[in-house]
Amino acid sequence: xxxxxxxxxxxxxxxxxxxxxxxxxxxxxxxxxxxxxxxxxxxxxxxxxxxxxxxxxxxxxxxxxxxxxxxxxxxxxxxxxxxxxxxxxxxxxxxxxxxxxxxxxxxxxxxxxxxxxxxxxxxxxxxxxxxxxxxxxxxxxxxxxxxxxxxxxxxxxxxxxxxxxxxxxxxxxxxxxxxxxxxxxxxxxxxxxxxxxxxxxxxxxxxxxxxxxxxxxxxxxxxxxxxxxxxxxxxxxxxxxxxxxxxxxxxxxxxxxxxxxxxxxxxxxxxxxxxxxxxxxxxxxxxxxxxxxxxxxxxxxxxxxxxxxxxxxxxxxxxxxxxxxxxxxxxxxxxxxxxxxxxxxxxxxxxxxxxxxxxxxxxxxxxxxxxxxxxxxxxxxxxxxxxxxxxxxxxxx
Length: 397
Known about the structure:
Helix content: 10-25%
Shape: elongated
Structural class: alpha+beta
Strand order of the largest sheet: 6-5-13-12-15-16-1-2-7
Order of helices and strands: EHEEEEEHEEEEEEEHEHEEHH
Low-confidence stretches: 1-12, 39-52, 98-104, 355-376, 382-395
């Protein structure tokens, strides 16, 4: 008998895999911190009023088919009772929209964007990359801005462009939302007018929430720490701040990412397969699942405004379902009627530079500080987001 390993790769039997009639994707996320409250000033104020530990769930459903619909396009995902979304949610097929005339006058952008990356007390030599918006408007881009793109396993999406008929949720037809108590455990069924019926059972639920903490270090850097999630395959963080002129026009914006390479946004802000995460960990773009801290360089804090908004992602498991199942014999071609992919992640947003609950308690008790006037015992309001949030709560004048 000839060992398969001894046979040249070119002559090994490759199973023929034909595209399915329907592809279905479920992206399930857990949001905490400001991510669970919409972010921005409203999220910051909610955190200051004791809502910082709130967690919520999100879910994106997308169905794509090679078939045309029999009649008007319709599709429903029937949920387990634990999802708390009722009997089902509708997957709506978007209607071609008409473009509205623009009412904005093009303006030459002003200011600069300073880009940093990597964990450490100080930024490595060669940082930041500076993008002058006025020069970019003239077609002048700084050299070496982007790292070479990386092909990631499992990086595909279901979209209207790659589907003959398409439907998704959330949408404008259905206003239901998931709660912190929602669960995906149990039987799922998708019935539509343009795809075979899809059935699968989930034994994996939403990931636990992330809890991120930041602490300024003596040298000016910021230590970011978080709780380790057992289901996490890797972590990625970014932070952003802006320093304004006082007239609403920022002069400098600062963007930092935890990656040891120049990798920003794109698929890193989405759901990633475990195989893709492994590849990104090897490239030092994503932090390994054993890591629970990252030091934001001092230069990032120094170059930005008084408050920095940050985000942390924990990528999670990925499950696959298909009907009929893939044949074990590589000589037998596989043509599934449908395939389904379910991905998980957990995400939290936080503010660096926002007073903690202990600081606010001192202000509410009227304790004196260096900025406290002798009159009513309240400190003078600072500028920026801190001042807006504290003034709204009556903690400063």
